[in-house]
Amino acid sequence: MKDKALVIFDMDGTLVNSSLTIANAINHVRKHLGLPPMEPEEILKKVNDHTIDPARTFYNARGFEPLHEKLFTEYYTENHGKELVLYDGVKSLLDALKSEGKALGLATNAYRNSTMESLKHLDIHDHFDAVACYDDVPQGKPEPDMLYKVLDEVKVPKGRAVFIGDGPRDQLAAQKAGMDYMMVDWGFSEHQNAIKSVDQLKQTLL
After folding, report:
1. Could you tell me the strand order of the sheet in which 180-183 lies?
2. pLDDT per position as a tens digit, 139-167
3. What would you report as the CA-atom Rg of the chain, rounded to the nearest whole angstrom?
4. Residue 90 CA to its chain's centroid (Å)
5. Which of 17, 87, 90, 142 could form a disulfide with 172 if both were Cys (CB 3.0 to 4.6 A apart)?
């Protein structure tokens, strides 16, 4: 696929409005760990904060543990059907990119089990040529490991690829990978110099 262009997307806050599910899943884990619930607004603000240690911040742990993944995925499995939705226009965007012959990738800090469940529930799983998740690589975003994994699987050079995300973790990962980046602003974050709508992104990419 060396001559093909590759568009890599972040998932949560970029393609999928999962704000309710993420906040509730993290609080589900916290409850089982004997920790008090956090305000959903605080969780969503910190999810994209690359300056914090998420395992310590959310679970008071030195690192993510198998129990955290089990409980988080448990909540996702039981609730994604009623809480997850695509942002308006996303399915049309993905369809248009595929019809133009572009390769599509996904790089998400979510666990693989919950990611696959989400993509299949939202009927966009088959759009992606490669999916890289938190537990697929040594280090999640803001490190570039996921982007390297997608590039390697799709066999596209980084000069033919662009990463699209909604926060500093995504931007830093793209910078470290030496890849073009586009910031969008309809998810969990607020950015001044960003693409403000799915239609605007569609026009930019096509």
Report:
1. 130-132, 103-107, 6-9, 161-165, 180-183
2. 999 999 999 999 999 999 999 999 999 98
3. 16
4. 14
5. 142
